[in-house]
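Q: Start with the shorter request: fold the first protein.
A: Done. Sequence, then structure:
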Amino acid sequence: MGEIHGAIDLPRAQIFLDGSNFYNGLVQQFGNGRYDLVKLALRIVGTRSLTQVNFYTGLIDPGWQAQAALKQTQFLYALSKLPIPVTVFARPMK
């Protein structure tokens, strides 16, 4: 999706992120699972053009952990409001 008038297209990049494992790894390493997905994505793609972030996660069962499920729902909603293209792929955890 380059500009018109002969501008060179940047190489494009997509990111595939296993959200649950990434979060759990952050908690194990740093004691905190907080991160800025926009900064992370832009750092990963560097000078390439970001076309999509694909975020995969298991959904927490609200009957099992109501508070954690609510926080996850809020987080997933926030992903939809980011200034980068994010598609969430979510499935119930077994």
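Q: Next, the second protein, separately.
A: Sequence, then structure:
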Amino acid sequence: MYIAIGIAAALFTADRVLKYLSRTGKLRYEGRLLRLTHLENHGFFMSFGQQHPQLVRWMPWVVWLLAAACLLPQLSRRPFGARSGALPGGVKNQYARLRRGSVTDYLQFPHRRIKKRALVWNLADFMLLGGVVLTVLGLLRELIRK
């Protein structure tokens, strides 16, 4: 369990450092499979909601509170990875939205067949995605056992 806490803390710190380097222009790389860049996302996934900044700032808190109310009673039975992945990633991005009004994204996976290479990610996005996947897998595993 302490290893998982350490990994979550290291990923949280790495994301913060990479966002800072991206904003200051010190994080630049262009390779075949990875591009390090800078994008300030004022919306949600794929910039949805950019026209409504107050909604973007506060709506995730409502979603987090509803999810917590649904999942909290059974949280202690979940694998630690499911409990620790989504929370730091989501909190990190929401903190940035409240503090700066946007989330800094810096990871892009270019593909020559896709003309619009618009998806730019950050490490917190992957933490959030991983936590959600682990949570869903845990729920499916419980359903199969019953």
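Q: Describe the second briefly.
A: The longest helix spans residues 123-145. Residues 25 and 84 are 30 Å apart (CA to CA).
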